[in-house]
Specification:
By secondary structure, the protein is α/β, with parallel strands linked by helices. Helix content is 43%, strand content 12%. The chain has 16 helices and 11 strands. Strands 4-2-3-5 form a 4-stranded mixed β-sheet. A 4-stranded mixed β-sheet has the order 8-7-6-9, with helices on both faces. The chain has a 3-stranded parallel β-sheet with strand order 1-10-11. Helix 4 packs parallel to helix 7, helix 5 (146-153) crosses helix 6 and helix 7 packs antiparallel against helix 8 (194-200). The chain is elongated.
Length: 401
């Protein structure tokens, strides 16, 4: 039995061996005092040769992650740049490094017009543009065309679309669709007529709303507004290896898999979620789904591939899809999931999306852990999370779930 689960990047089929150590680094002083002295800045804000080695490597790689940590200047042009500057690299003997743009200016160099090292980093400028676009979309009732958003940001439509998706994790169109769905959630609860809620949420027609709402709400808009009125939800509570499990499904698919200790508490939670729905016993197809859930919990050897009927925002659905790519027996940190969906600063939002998951094991949020590998919280108890991971490790690596 393996003693711990292995954390792996999501959807990264290839791994790479560490790069060989550059020859220029092999003869560095080993004495700590000597190395510390070599790394001290030299007068005028330039850096000592030992520190320059890694900086030159960053320039050759055009490493954007080093932007803001130093700038380099070229004696022959009189210009200083960011490490990620796309201009043709200068000869090493013509390059000087500075800790900050101010030091380069004081030494007589001017800012590159291409990479603009005297302005905020490109990622920050893009983030500000995207935040402005998000605010404009939130103020809009009917949406804003991609061309108009791009023009306001000063970018081409294609470039803006790429920047927006890299920052937010979804396209501008999907972002506005999620906004409309959120408005629809609120309007269906507050507005007496579904038709009024449709237009209050910003949908231009009822047909478009009904076309999108089923995926976002998990049932028809009228049924959602009425707490599941008119819906038949098949359900059961069964003993399992983790205590007790509730499984429930609409006609579209499984809408709940929840663990607990008391069957009555699980049943009450389902009724609170769908107070107006008709809860009925399962048919043969539903019982087959329940059997697959119980078998997976007992010995998770095969993939648990069930039709699902879950509600969520565009961001939540993006996270849930990423979770389903984590191989069985492996784990990923919240930060790794955030990077995998193209939103590296959204680790906390990823954690919130995991916490809102209502279909345990089918959407395997138990495979997401803290950066140090500790299990962190779990909607159905941290002890169940640890036990699920243990069972998956014991089941072996002969398949993914």
């Amino acid at each position: 039995m393996r003693s711990a689960s292995t954390s792996v990047p999501i959807a990264s089929p290839a791994t790479h061996a560490p790069a060989a150590m550059p020859a220029s680094t092999r003869s560095r002083p080993t004495d700590p005092a000597t190395r510390a002295a070599a790394a001290r800045p030299t007068p005028g804000g330039a850096t000592a040769p030992d520190a320059d080695t890694s900086r030159w490597d960053a320039v050759l790689r055009r490493d954007a992650s080093r932007d803001g940590t130093f700038v380099y200047a070229v004696r022959t042009t009189g210009v200083y740049c960011r490490p990620s500057c796309a201009s043709r690299p200068a000869r090493r003997e013509n390059v000087r490094f500075f800790d900050a743009p101010e030091a380069a200016v004081a030494a007589g160099f001017r800012a590159c017009r291409r990479c603009r090292p005297d302005a905020p980093p490109l990622a920050e400028r893009h983030r500000a543009l995207v935040l402005d676009a998000c605010a404009a979309l939130e103020r809009s009732e009917s949406g804003i065309a991609l061309d108009a958003l791009a023009a306001a940001a000063g970018l081409t439509p294609r470039h803006f679309h790429r920047v927006f998706k890299a920052t937010v994790g979804v396209s501008p169109k999907a972002y506005f669709a999620a906004l409309r769905t959120r408005r629809a959630h609120a309007a269906l609860q507050a507005t007496p007529r579904v038709t009024d809620a449709i237009y209050d949420a910003g949908f231009g027609s009822s047909s478009r709303f009904y076309g999108e709402a089923g995926h976002a709400l998990g049932m028809s808009p009228s049924a959602f507004r009425a707490g599941g009125a008119g819906q038949r939800i098949r359900w059961t509570v069964e003993p399992c290896a983790l205590g007790t499990v509730l499984v429930a499904a609409t006609e579209r698919g499984v809408c709940a898999i929840e663990f607990g200790d008391a069957p009555q508490a699980l049943a009450e939670r389902l009724r609170a979620r769908f107070p107006q729905a008709t809860l009925v016993d399962g048919n043969p197809a539903f019982r087959e789904w329940v059997g697959r859930v119980l078998a997976f919990v007992e010995r998770p050897r095969e993939a648990l591939d069930l039709p699902l009927d879950v509600r969520g925002t565009a961001f939540q659905r993006l996270v849930w899809e990423a979770l389903r790519t984590i191989p069985r027996g492996r784990t990923a940190s919240y930060a790794e999931v955030a990077r995998a969906i193209g939103h590296p600063e959204a680790a906390r939002a990823v954690a919130a999306a995991c916490a809102s998951n209502t279909v345990a094991v089918a959407i395997p949020c138990h495979r997401v852990v803290r950066g140090d590998g500790s299990p962190s919280g779990y909607r159905w108890g941290a002890a169940r999370k640890v036990e699920l991971l243990r069972r998956e490790r014991e089941a072996g690596d002969d398949g993914d779930a």
